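Postdoc handover notes: sequence design on the structure in folder B. Input tokens:
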């Protein structure tokens, strides 16, 4: 009984949609997706943001770090502009004394050894996430360099 009712309802809907409605429904999913994809790089270029998409290896970093333009911190400090910055120096973030006093400047090479094993490079740091794969570290650092 329920089956027949549903069938009837579907038939009525299909009937209603048979003219312009059906065309609208078919067109709807395709166009907004295309617009979003096309708009994104253009918007980034205008705003002066990074045009590079983060590499897959960066996903884990994004759990704790933002790279947003407003400098908002997560569990870790915002990483926009980190390359060339002094370690533990971003205004408003509660760093460990260990990182604040490390006297590191974040060159690509320093970030590479940091990401290899943060706790070994800066004993007492609050960041534990390392990246074992050198190719992944390279991809991450290349991405960080685009975040001016
Ligand atoms: C679980 C959270 C967490 C994850 C995941 C994480 N971090 Fe961090 N990160 C932190 C914290 C917390 C600090 C500050 C450490 C301190 O004060 O000792 C930090 C500090 C840093 C710094 C130094 C920033 C500065 O201003 O001195 C860099 C660079 C960094 N992280 C990069 C990364 C990258 C790249 C990844 C991904 C591979 C990553 N982090 C993953 C929490 C995290």
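Designed sequence:
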């Amino acid at each position: 009984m329920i089956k027949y009712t549903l069938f009837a309802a579907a038939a009525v809907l299909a009937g209603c949609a048979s003219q312009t409605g059906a065309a609208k429904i078919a067109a709807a999913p395709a166009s907004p997706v295309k617009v979003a994809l096309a708009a994104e790089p253009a918007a980034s270029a205008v705003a002066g943001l990074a045009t590079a998409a983060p590499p897959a290896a960066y996903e884990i970093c994004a759990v704790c770090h933002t790279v947003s333009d407003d400098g908002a911190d997560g569990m870790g400090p915002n990483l926009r502009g980190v390359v060339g910055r002094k370690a533990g120096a971003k205004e408003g973030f509660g760093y460990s004394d260990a990182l604040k006093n490390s006297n590191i400047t974040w060159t690509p090479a320093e970030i590479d050894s940091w990401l290899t094993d943060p706790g070994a490079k800066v004993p007492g740091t609050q960041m534990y996430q390392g990246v074992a794969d050198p190719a992944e570290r390279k991809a991450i650092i290349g991405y960080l360099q685009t975040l001016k």
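Context for whoever picks this up: Residues 60-61, 63-65, 75-77, 79, 82, 85, 87-88, 90, 95-96, 98-99, 106, 111, 115, 125-127, 129, 131, 140 surround heme C (CB under 6 Å). Don't rerun without checking with the PI first.
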